[in-house]
Amino acid sequence: MNTRRVLAAAVTITFATGLPARQPHVAAATHALSDTLREPPLLRNRSRVPGVVEFDLTAAPAKLRLIPGGPLVNVYAYNGSVPGPTIDVREGDSVVIHFHNELPETSTVHWHGLHLPADMDGSVLEPIPPGTTYDYAFRLARGSAGTYWYHPHPDVRSTYQVAMGLFGAFIVRAADDPLAAQRIPEKLLILSDNRFGADGQVEFPDPRSITAEIDLENGREGNVLFVNGQVAPTIPIAHGALQRWRIVNASAARVYRLALPGRPLIKVGTDGGLFEHPVEVPDVILANSGRVELLVRGDSSTVLQDLPYDRYMPQTRPPDWDSTRTLLYVRGGRVTGASAVRPLSMPAVLRPIPTLDTTLVAARRVIVMSQGQLDGKRMDMHRIDIRARLNTTEIWTIQNVVGMDHPFHLHGFQAQVLDRGGVPEPFPSWNDTVNIPKHSSVRIVVRFDDYPGRWMYHCHILDHEDEGMMGVLELSN
Ligand code: C2O
Ligand code: CU
Ligand code: CU
């Protein structure tokens, strides 16, 4: 992906000239039966105190029609919807979430990517038994604006509970977001996939079957792809108009390679929010649990594609791995007068991203990812794998020694990538999930500025996490 280029600062993007030079024919670019994209409901704030937001979130079994015309499916849902309601808050807010576990099993709510006290992280170390309530409370730091998500993180059952429907988006907004200042409309796109049996219910393989063995290797993938719980919905964008897409990969294992055929993507942010400058890329590889923000302009009709991406071991690679899938339809509109073509002046800097200082590094570590293990070990909740100090900076080399990709995730902290496979990262950005391609290494730098306690780091292929491809980091003074 060295074809990316940083768009010139203070660039003025005008879309007055109609079609781009190369516009391949996209078969069935609009689909007559496709529904317009809906967004999950917003979780309602029940606080009246300024700066405090308070929510109720209940995980419970439900019956929902997941596919139009299909049967009612037994699911687990947050507040009755799949995906769960979107939590939409601002930097500086004090957030209180009253979580009610009405599932027949232990769960947690993990606030993936957020920087918060360790006992509020909803990790495997803080199980919430069935029939009980837990109050998650934390304050969102300045500079934390970005697209995050929440999902269960219980011992051994994350794959199951996420497949049953427990996941939702968590958006943190900045007061001075330059794209919001331009009134660019936003779309949230939560990508997920699932697998259904002949009875239409969510299907899980017999644990002794070959399918279960392959799932354990690849991670669970489903053949039905959803965007916000809809199959191939449509997003209308008027010609010349611009939209900001916040995309969350909530799949258990699927890695998406996102592309709009014949057009570059304008990437403006990742897990921990906006970049300093937009970059143009031909496609985006979005590993499971990662997020990306794109600017998409209205043009002729097209589709958002998931291109083939070979993350697999040859012996368990699915036979259809190299097919291109349509995730959604983008319906272009006609120019309805000069006002539809709005010149947009981008600010010189979306927001400053300070490069983490690597001259004073307290520790350099190597973490080896192999099949189902980190550093040759399985997770033990009672073992500390890494001891580190607060107010220090560390450089971690994440080394994947096997022949499939593993997305590495660190709880509680946003890290910066230094290099991938020895290639220096072209510009700094904030990430909590970094895909480590087969037989390669990625170096990250992380600053432990706050929050003592125990933190997880793991492969975010949920089957691998459940299997114990996870370690414990303890931060102390
Ligand atoms: Cu998305 Cu350990 O989490
Ligand atoms: Cu996490
Ligand atoms: Cu893995």
Estimated share of beta-strand residues: 35-45%
Number of strands: 33
- Distance from N terminus to C terminus (CA atoms, Å) equals 40 Å
Helix-residue proportion:
under 10%
Tell me what the structure shows.
The protein is mainly beta. The protein folds into 3 domains: 34-171, Cupredoxins -  blue copper proteins (Immunoglobulin-like, Sandwich); 186-331, Immunoglobulin-like (Sandwich), CATH 2.60.40.420; 363-476, Cupredoxins -  blue copper proteins (Immunoglobulin-like, Sandwich), CATH 2.60.40.420. It has helices at 158-163, 178-181, 210-218, 462-467, and strands spanning 5-6, 12-13, 52-65, 72-78, 87-90, 94-101, 110-112, 133-139, 146-151, 168-173, 186-194, 224-227, 234-237, 242-249, 256-259, 265-270, 273-281, 284-286, 291-297, 302-306, 325-332, 344-345, 363-370, 373-374, 386-389, 392-400, 406-410, 416-420, 423-424, 433-436, 440-448, 453-459, 470-476. The strands form 7 sheets. A 7-stranded mixed sheet has the order 1-17-16-19-14-11-12, with no helix packed on it. A 6-stranded mixed sheet has the order 24-23-26-31-28-29, with no helix packed on it. It is globular. The two termini are 40 Å apart. The model is unreliable at 1-29 (pLDDT under 50).
